[in-house]
Amino acid sequence: MKKFVHGRLLSMKYALKGAFLLITTEHSIMVQFATSCVVIGLGFYFDISKQDWINQTLVMAMVLGIESMNTAVEKMADFIHPDFNAKIGFIKDIAAGAVTFCAIAAAVLFALIYFPYFFPA
To answer: For 62-70, what is the mean pLDDT?
Structure first.
């Protein structure tokens, strides 16, 4: 049991280190993290509903998570093949496309939540 708990604590340490590295070194993550902070602030300001908080939190986590995976794919691809390679470029483009799908979904969700507050009927 002690070994299990120690292993989980180490895993958490590495995960937090990874999150810190993403937020402090990757510009796309910095932008999306800052956007998430702004949206959280808007949520408090407009006192959005519990369901809106759930939806907002899930979509922010989705975008940040997929962007993190995209960054990992790009770093791995660049490590494996540092020179230009069409197949590596294709893989990186697909990973970036996944982020785009999530970002569009997030933008739609944020519009659905906040449009009525900015443009009341």
So the answer is: 97
